[in-house]
């Protein structure tokens, strides 16, 4: 399989995973928690739009990023680093540089570690490729 065909096949598989109901449900729960958190724990850089933006990019890239590491696909490593950086800090910096540069200057150093930790947790939750019933069957077989 040629490199472009392999890449196309890989992203086709990712698109199927994004449509899984259990993954969409966990994304919805996560977004709801982020939005609730923006009201409960007010911070100058925590609002609904950035919560939606960062959750969207995490949904698209987190599991793939972890898969690149676990499968030791070193050729994809630079793209994985770029996707991780953009999701964790790049889109945040772009958004706040346009909306409120003072909030960006104040909060950027403390935002990225928390965002990276959440990104890692999301990658673990969304890593499994398959339905929820397939995951349950695999867990029963593993015991």
From TrEMBL:
Keyword Transmembrane helix: yes
Lineage top rank: taxon: Bacteria
Keyword annotations of the record: Membrane, Transmembrane, Transmembrane helix
Transmembrane segments: 21-42, 48-70, 77-98, 110-128
Keyword Transmembrane (UniProt): yes
Protein name as annotated: Uncharacterized protein
Record organism: Ottowia testudinis
Organism placement in taxonomy: Bacteria, Pseudomonadati, Pseudomonadota, Betaproteobacteria, Burkholderiales
């Amino acid at each position: 399989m040629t490199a472009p065909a392999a890449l196309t096949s890989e992203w086709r598989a990712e698109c199927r995973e994004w449509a899984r109901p259990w993954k969409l449900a966990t994304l919805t729960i996560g977004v709801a928690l982020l939005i609730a958190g923006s009201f409960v724990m007010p911070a100058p850089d925590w609002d609904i739009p950035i919560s939606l933006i960062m959750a969207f990019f995490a949904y698209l890239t987190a599991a793939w990023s972890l898969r690149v590491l676990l499968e030791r696909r070193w050729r994809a490593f630079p793209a994985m680093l770029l996707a991780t950086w953009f999701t964790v800090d790049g889109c945040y910096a772009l958004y706040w540089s346009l909306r409120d540069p003072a909030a960006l200057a104040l909060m950027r150093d403390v935002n990225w570690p928390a965002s990276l930790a959440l990104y890692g947790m999301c990658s673990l939750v969304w890593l499994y490729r398959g339905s929820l019933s397939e995951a349950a069957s695999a867990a029963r077989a593993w015991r």
